[in-house]
Amino acid sequence: MNARFQEAIAHFDAENAKDPYSETVGSEPVPRELLYARRLTDWVLKLEPKASEALQLAARCQHIRRWEIPRGEFPADKAGYHRWRTKLKSFHAEVAEKILCTCGYDDAMIARVRELNLKTKFPADPDSRRLEDALCLVFLEFQLEEFAQRTDREKVVNALRKSWAKMTEQGRKAALSLALTGKAGELVAEAIRRG
């Protein structure tokens, strides 16, 4: 990719590197959202090695500075969760737009990345579908186990059923190739069985 793309990725990563929360990889702590952005990018490129520039940018900034809007600031009910998610999506898109503008991207590319971040054309848009597949795969591979430990089993199964329904056949094949064992494997199998 071009220098402008590399500059945007560096800016996104620098913002996510400020995350006060970290995850240990090997023996090194890595800022959580920086790690998430890299994992999401990796999955996008596994699913589509020739992913468009807009899709790669959208993947890298999908959760940019997410820690700044904590879940705890919203009611613990379903409506509160949806309000939190809606606010996050707009926040991520706004932060990304400013960075892309600083890097010299034109209005069309900025609008396209925003469209992908906000999922305004999901499920009709192929890039939006691919991004959703990658989001689901990052969750399954890296977050499901922890989520299952702190969440009611029925809620986990329902979340997995919804994720599975959004995924493409390619995404589902990739999910089935993951080495999900123990509770995570059981929950995915149950969700698929219950459709």
Give a structural overview.
This protein has 195 residues and is mostly helical. It folds into 2 domains: 1-120, no CATH class; 126-195, no CATH class. Helices cover 70% and strands 4% of the residues. It has 9 helices and 2 strands, in the order αββαααααααα. The protein has helices at 3-16, 32-47, 53-61, 78-102, 107-118, 126-150, 153-166, 169-176, 182-194; strands at 22-25, 28-31. It has a two-stranded antiparallel sheet with strand order 1-2. A hairpin with a 2-residue loop joins strand 1 (22-25) and strand 2. Helix 6 packs antiparallel against helix 7. The longest helix is centred in the middle third of the chain and has 25 residues, at 78-102. The chain is globular. The model has no long low-confidence stretch (mean pLDDT 96).
How many domains make up the coordinates?
2
Task: Output the strand order for the largest sheet.
Answer: 1-2
Strand content: under 5%
| Low-pLDDT windows of residues | none
- Provide the residue-averaged pLDDT: 96
Continuous helix count:
9
How helix-rich are the residues, as a percent range?
Answer: 55-70%
| Radius of gyration of CA atoms, rounded to a whole number | 17 Å
Name the shape in a single word: globular
SS-derived structural category: mainly alpha
- For the secondary structure, the number of strands is 2
Query: What string gives the helices and strands in order?
Result: HEEHHHHHHHH
* N- to C-terminal distance: 40 Å
Which sheet architecture does the biggest sheet show? Answer: 2 strands, antiparallel
